[in-house]
Amino acid sequence: MKISIIGFGNLGKTFASSFIKSKFIKSEDIYVVTRTLPQSEMSLGIPMVNFQKLPDLNITASDIVILATKPQDFEEVAKTLKQFITDEQIVLSVMAGVSIEKIKEKLSVKKVIRSMPNLGTQIGLGMTVFSASAETDRKDLFIVQNLINTTGKSIYVEDESLINPATAVSGSGPAYVFYFMNAMIEAAEDFGFSSSEAEVLVHQTFLGAINLQSTSNLSYNELITKVASKGGTTESALKVFETNALDKIIAHAMQSANNRAIELGA
Question: How far, CA to CA in Å, does 52 sit from each of 45, 103, 106, 112, 219?
Fold first, then answer.
């Protein structure tokens, strides 16, 4: 199987690296179109002759074309890419906000899969939600899902409109976690812990909580109850969250992210 990657930024590099490490795709079968050619030591083992600044017939010879350009650059990129794309190819987009219909129109293709990966893909623990055009068959979906899963886990949704909420949940989600962690670190420092001590306290707390949840059959509310004994310290903290309607603030923030995703795709 041959793959072309259009754009060699963070996501382009992440997918290329994951394909190669998983031995799903050979490095010599990956072609890259990028504005800036990398130094050989940054090529991930992909032959330097496979890197080009402009699309060429290597694109036509590929089974899958991955669009990893910036969304705002897509229309310009499509002008030079279109002549090398065929109806038999699968086009996989990792661009935020660009609809399946727009990709089909600008590239004159039928088989389009639109995905929303998140930051965790960089370490093989990503979460990707993807949807596909009606012309994409089960075999195509199976192949692409296997490719995506080299970067973590994935969920297929028939309704493309769910890609925007997925952006608000898992796409933006890592930043929410980092925000909460940073607030806890700052609070720990206010208590008198050093910066390094506060980071260890918070990092290990999150790591332990995530691993505990992943190995437990208990619901989130049941896990909260296990930590929050009646009249204890945790219950006191949770009451502050409830009084300030933290759950509604989180929901409102995620709705704002969803609205922005819709605006960007308009």
Answer: 15, 22, 21, 23, 50
